Amino acid sequence: MDKRLFVSHTLVEFTAAFFDCEKIEALGFTANMNLPAVADGRVVSTLNLLGRTGDYTPEVVAAAMAWQPALTLAFLKLQLEDIASATLHSGIRTPQNAGILEG
């Protein structure tokens, strides 16, 4: 697993990154950002975000990178608590859960 941030900014980049891009695009998403949580030189987890083309500007990416140490600590805490995996939901309204898209 690569230890670097991955961002797809365009629909072409997005579709190249996801085998199920048609399903994801049908939900209204056309861009993504994967922020790795790196500790002791290894990736312990990732925060994977979906958005729309143009969402992940250089300013947004820089802000996400500033949070990377806190993200890493959160995932290490989950590992210490023997939680094999976790899905954290922020409550952000997506096109799907906002009722914009049918589904």
UniProtKB/TrEMBL annotation:
Keywords: Plasmid. This is Uncharacterized protein. It comes from Ketogulonicigenium robustum. The lineage of its organism: Bacteria, Pseudomonadati, Pseudomonadota, Alphaproteobacteria, Rhodobacterales.
